[in-house]
Amino acid sequence: MRLSARYAAAIREATSEVFGADAVLRLFGSRVDDDARGGDIDLHIEARSDRADPDHEIRLRSMIWKALDEPQIDVVVAARGSAERWIDRAARRDGVVL
After folding, report:
1. What is the architecture of the domain spanning 5-97?
2. Radius of gyration for the alpha carbons in the chain, expressed in angstroms and rounded
3. What is this structure's pTM?
């Protein structure tokens, strides 16, 4: 996994604050591959349906940008219990829980 301990901690803290302690946070995409180089930070979040909305996603992005000054972050939010999309399956299959 190519994510520093500082980045992982800041992302976990922001996710917990925005989506609640019961949210499941995964890193997926190229940053999971130790042999790859570069790439944005792809995050998949499973959250309660009352928090799985664009307002919460924007708040999370803002908190991460302020903490890390990292512009290359992609966030996918899935409401717990909703119909699974292809991106949800890929993140669950290939992602790493932070």
Report:
1. 2-Layer Sandwich (3.30)
2. 13
3. 0.92
